């Protein structure tokens, strides 16, 4: 391909949509960010097409990649359910290709971030790797034998492993899911329940770790819950490296170090994985979408 | 290939080795079974080569497949550890190809059985499927996007998911693994602990289900433990079908029906899988090894 070819990478969220024109070295030449446009509850597919067309104007755009939250069939490019976009059975790939005339791939946002971390990030070069962003929700992308699993859209829901049977009720209806103890909102909620004091978020709890035993207890419960879930995932998948991302991982070694120690202590015969922080941070979705764009261009 | 070509399928166990000459329709034309030959604790690789050569004599043998228990790197054909064969880092594929001059593939026994069930057995046609033999141990083979996972040898250890934290100590060193409640030996052990009465095996417990509340309690605990482990596996893998095999599944619907009900009751947003009994029974390893033999012949 010619050196001046580009792809468009789009990371679709419930609050905003981030898009970028990306060159062959995965550099963002131009970026755009807009609030997600809606008709009632339903996010507007046309906005994504407009972003692709606007960024591509005047450039040789040979492909595009789009990362979407929810239950996504990557192979069909079909969004089965995306609660915070109001989408059900949206044939996103077909609609966007029709509206942009650009070859395009659609993928679940966590698997897109995983693709980026496994290809150019913290999991680079590991055939068996796992990427777990810990944010508003918790999910995992798993690469086994060099392929990211779960194109049918149903795999990787590690946030809904039961780690505390009989515990708090999760949004999914079950009790004691990992998300009830370790997703970002759980930190502030559990700290408030424990102390009666309000705190804004997980970073707020992290900031109190050196001085406040209640913050330490909330943090410890989250680390133990994450270790319980990862122990199960390691037993079933056997990754050589686990990459932790998402907003809660912004705490860095305050999260990674005790989680690594607790997980490794629990493993017996299982392969002992490296546990590391994600390398790409908030850019994982965009970088992964750009990689998809180059895949779409080739196919 | 010519219609008279054959492959040799070998299923290596700690007690005996089963081998067969198999035609293109996966029919066993001739079978052999021998006690596993050992030097001290170490099983003799030469016996496997002899079986391949003996069955192949006078036939056009174009490939062979060998199923082995333990931690097996399928891609390298390397047995990392097989406790009940006394093997550590045995380059089985290379040694057998040198001794037989037949193209050959080596695979973990459960993944070999899974390959058979996913290709011609109860999971036929399902791109996302799971095979879980419940016998002396419990492990799983998982197919995602049409490929059986875990060629590096570390995946699928569902028997060592913790389903009863603080429960009985497992052979692996952890407490409360699935195997402590639901592997074949656990049925007789738990029945004896509960009643002081000796019973030979899981089939013995199954035979008492209609008359003996203690047998029912032991059975129920095993079903609940299996459901807990499968709930986690479904959340992480999202299979559309779960195929239950191994000796304990010989109980048929006495196991499958309550397990199916308990698992489906626990799932929330997850894809609801079919839960069925394996179709190939004790032949799964041999059929899978034959499929590997035909793969080796093609490659």
Automatic annotation (TrEMBL), chains A, B:
One of its GO terms (molecular function) is kinase activity. Keywords: Kinase, Transferase. Belongs to the ROK (NagC/XylR) family. This is Glucokinase. It comes from Actinokineospora terrae.
